[in-house]
Design a protein that fits this description.
Number of strands: 16
Number of helices: 37
Structural class: alpha/beta
Helix content: 55-70%
Low-confidence stretches: 150-160, 833-845
Radius of gyration: 32 Å
Strand order of the largest sheet: 8-7-14-9-13-12-10
Mean pLDDT: 86
Strand content: 5-15%
Length: about 850
């Protein structure tokens, strides 16, 4: 096995580090050395932890000495200090390479051997390659002669000596679903696992949800109960905790409560120990003082309540660190089970936007962790996540790890088994087929079950909810009269037991929304032209487009049919919304009341921000927004209903464009895009007009709130109130432009938005096209931005919105310094501290 070589250097010496690696290529190819430096950190990782871990594992620490290295606090005070400690312990060697002349002779590390020959800096050699060759020759002798001293860990001997069995290690690595990836032969659980968050069950009257990471909660010994719905990944959580605890020197013991048939705790644990570890007994476990018990599926324990309670109480008395999992419904009776009263309860959450991006990032980086650049990683990640979000929407498909991985697998395969469906319709169909397979339904019976569920969905739709027992009997009777006989007792049993149908409050319905939407959309698409009742239902869907479920049904109808009636109905509905207004142009004259305000607000500055943190913050905000929307109830009044209808309609139009861009004609795409954008701009025109007409009343209302603050004069109150009003108005204009772009946009149909901009020739269409280009193409096109800026140059509001788009893009994607300089010159945005950020993004000089 080769020696692990850690390179400590300043990023200002990046080219010297690259030259050094080039000269090490033969040694690396032969497996003599395994080189690590901080550029091998996967974007998004916790960089300091990665550096510390690799420094601790290094056999040889190479220092690239230069003035910049000596000036770097991190290199000098952190990496060098720890390297010298490990050198003194005899577990690592230090080699100093002089790359640039500097005053290093008085430094403590000057006592170690320096290369190249005579400690002559690389840059002072007439032939740098000869200098590097001398360095490599010196390095070879160290590699051959240095053997690190073995140091026993300062932990109980059991943690260092107990060996994990091959079968248990294989089980810990197993994803339990078949995954294939174009870059790697085998995908392990560690490769793609993302630790979900939990919602803590805290006794508090506060309505604020307490959401924490599992790592932050289970960081000390104690008793923990993690509940979750089926397929929430509870077993995978215990697997990863098991691996992590073992690596940290503990002895975790995994138990599946389903297999516990006796209350003899010693026998139960001993049986698991014999499977998990080599030559390790129950007495060894007790003596170690480092045991952690992990029990899966405690709600399915094979003991009655009396003996289950007795076993749990004995477990609690012997072990101080126990983690259990159960189904969500079990947590409601936790207090009634002996021994579980003192357990901290947390509900395992599905993967929100932040966690989904983390999983997608791992998937994209698989097999190319060391070579993929930041821009490619984030671009591919965003493209995949956008496709995931389109399928998942607002929990239409439960955003649980297994579903996300299944969808990523579909995107990877990119197969189209049913050309009558859209690409996204195909994804839903594949999820249904996989559910059929799990239910033991033979492929020859797929059509029968699809027909049953299609007809059943129509009954649920007409009832506007699940079916009670009498209604189920009515459905079975009417179905049997129209179609061949079906054993509905067996059929419903299969569908119930495999997450397709469920009994909820004594009503039979679909387990997950995507199943209902898929089948009712199929029914409507197939029957629209023939059944008047179905045609009337579409009219009801369009009238109530503000309803989330109705909007989703329309989207699913578009998955099932290419007939033009769907587009015609959608366009007709959009044209009726805010039809008393023409689309706003956002011309300078329209926004003249804001021009003076725009001159007074501070100029934009590109601040020093870490890209991954910005992306995390963005996703956390999306998660908070989605949670707040979940608790909103009630029907909106007419105006809000029309606003919701407008944006739901724009989203549907955009979904159709993204789904059908390859099959719709250019004119159909253009008309649909025009219809969607114009609807958003008609609403914006309406907003600007009512905002302007109600300006005085709004300012008075804001002034009333400001007047409660002491020490502010009436003139100051009036001025602040007017500024607040203008901030609000500008914020809405900016948000609507981006919302319309995000809803209607498509990467594949980008040329359509250029044609639309060319025909309309208004600032509004230019801003929307530019926003679509940035959101869906991911890259900054300086030429395109310059053209947009030239057109908007005398429009303060338009220029400000354009600048904010660019700054937001820079915060979310890697942009090199030269390109930022061009942007700074073109857009007049200063780049405060940006070079410093580029050089210090991993904490170094």
């Amino acid at each position: 096995m080769g020696k692990k070589l850690f390179i400590s250097y300043s990023h200002k010496d990046e080219t010297h580090r690259e030259d050094f690696e080039d000269h090490l290529s033969v040694l690396k190819r032969r497996g003599v050395v395994d080189v690590w430096h901080d550029r091998r950190i996967v974007p998004g990782s916790e960089w300091k932890g990665e550096i510390d871990r690799n420094l601790e594992e290094a056999d040889i620490v190479v220092l690239l000495i230069s003035p910049s290295f000596l000036a770097s606090d991190y290199c000098f005070d952190v990496e060098l200090k720890r390297a010298m400690e490990r050198k003194d312990d005899g577990v690592a060697e230090i080699i100093a390479i002089l790359v640039r002349p500097c005053d290093w002779s008085d430094c403590e590390f000057s006592k170690y051997q320096a290369v190249p020959k005579d400690a002559k800096p690389i840059t002072t050699w007439s032939d740098p390659d000869s200098a590097w060759l001398d360095v490599v020759n010196g390095l070879k002798s160290h590699i051959e002669n240095f053997e690190p001293k073995f140091i026993e860990e300062d932990v109980p001997s059991i943690a260092g000596s107990v060996g994990v069995s091959v079968s248990f290690k294989t089980w810990l690595d197993d994803t339990e679903i078949a995954l294939t990836h174009r870059k790697v032969d085998t995908v392990s659980l560690a490769d793609i696992f993302v630790m979900p968050d939990i919602e803590l069950d805290e006794s508090s009257d506060s309505e604020i949800v307490s959401i924490k990471s599992i790592d932050s909660v289970i960081k000390n010994s104690g008793f923990y109960l993690l509940s979750g719905e089926e397929q929430q990944g509870k077993t995978s959580i215990l697997k990863r905790l098991c691996s992590r605890f073992y690596d940290d020197g503990f002895v975790p013991v995994y138990l599946n409560a389903i297999d516990i048939k006796k209350s003899d705790l010693i026998e139960v644990i001993s049986k698991s120990l014999s499977w998990q570890y080599e030559s390790f007994s129950y007495c060894d476990l007790i003596d170690s003082g480092k045991s952690i018990i992990l029990i899966d599926n405690i709600d399915e324990i094979g003991l009655n309540s009396k003996y289950a309670g007795r076993l749990i109480e004995e477990l609690n008395s012997l072990f101080g660190f126990v983690i259990m999992t159960c189904h969500s419904s079990f947590s409601y009776v936790q207090g009634e089970i002996r021994g579980l009263h003192d357990y901290v309860h947390g509900e395992v959450l599905s993967l929100g936007n932040k966690k989904r991006e983390e999983l997608v990032r791992k998937w994209v980086a698989l097999g190319q962790e060391e070579s993929i650049d930041d821009f490619s990683l984030y671009s591919e990640c965003d493209e995949l996540k956008a496709r995931l979000d389109t399928v998942i929407k607002k929990n239409i498909v439960p955003p649980r790890p297994i579903y996300i991985l299944m969808l990523l697998q579909m995107f990877e395969a990119n197969s189209q088994l049913n050309l009558d469906l859209t690409s996204y319709g195909h994804c839903y169909q594949q999820l249904i087929y996989q559910a059929f397979d799990k239910a033991g339904i033979k492929k020859v019976e797929f059509d029968k079950y699809i027909n049953i569920l299609t007809e059943f969905s129509w009954e649920v739709f007409q009832k506007d909810g699940g079916l009670d027992e009498a209604r189920v009997e009515y459905f079975v009777d009417s179905y049997s009269k129209r179609f061949l006989s079906v054993d509905f007792v067996d059929a419903f049993s299969r569908l119930r037991s495999n997450s397709i149908l469920t009994d909820r409050d004594q009503f039979l319905s679909f387990k997950y929304p995507y199943l209902y939407y898929f089948f009712v959309g199929k029914k409507i698409a197939e029957s629209y032209s023939e059944v008047s009742e179905v045609k009337r239902s579409v009219e009801a869907l369009l009238r109530n487009l503000h309803r989330e479920d109705y909007a989703n049904i329309l989207i699913f109808i578009s998955h099932h049919t290419k007939d033009s009636w769907v587009l015609d109905e959608i366009k007709s509905t959009l044209r009726e919304l805010f039809d008393a207004h023409v689309p706003t142009s956002l011309e300078r004259g329209q926004l003249a009341f804001m021009n003076d305000f725009m001159r007074k607000i501070p100029e934009l500055v590109i601040e020093q921000r870490e890209i991954q943190k910005e992306r995390d913050d963005h996703n956390e905000n999306l998660d908070r927004l989605e949670r707040s929307e979940e608790v909103q109830q009630g029907e909106p009044h007419d105006l809000l209903g029309n606003i919701n209808k407008a944006f739901k309609g724009i989203e549907i139009a955009g979904q159709v464009i993204r789904n059908r861009h390859a099959t719709l004609t250019r004119s159909s795409l253009f008309e649909l895009a025009d219809c969607g954008v114009s609807t958003g701009l008609r609403f914006l025109k309406y907003f600007i007009e009512i905002s302007d007409s109600a300006k005085n009343e709004i300012i008075k209302m804001i002034a009333v709130h400001l007047s409660e603050s002491p020490g502010i004069s009436d003139r100051e109150i009036e001025k602040q109130a007017e500024n607040a009003y203008l901030h609000l108005t500008y914020g809405v204009i900016n948000s609507v432009v981006r919302k319309v772009a995000g809803s209607i946009g498509s990467k594949e149909a980008l040329e359509i938005y250029f044609l639309l901009e060319k025909e309309k020739q208004t600032p509004a269409f230019t801003l929307i096209r530019q926003s679509i280009e940035l959101q869906f193409n991911k890259s900054l096109d300086i030429k395109s931005l310059s053209k947009s800026l030239s057109y908007l140059h005398d429009n303060p509001v338009g220029v400000r919105i354009l600048k904010e788009m660019v700054v937001q893009h820079i915060y979310m994607f890697p942009v090199d310094y030269k390109e930022k300089q061009k942007l700074s010159s073109k857009l007049g945005i200063s780049i405060q501290g940006q070079r410093f950020l580029d050089q210090h993004k991993l904490g170094k000089g």
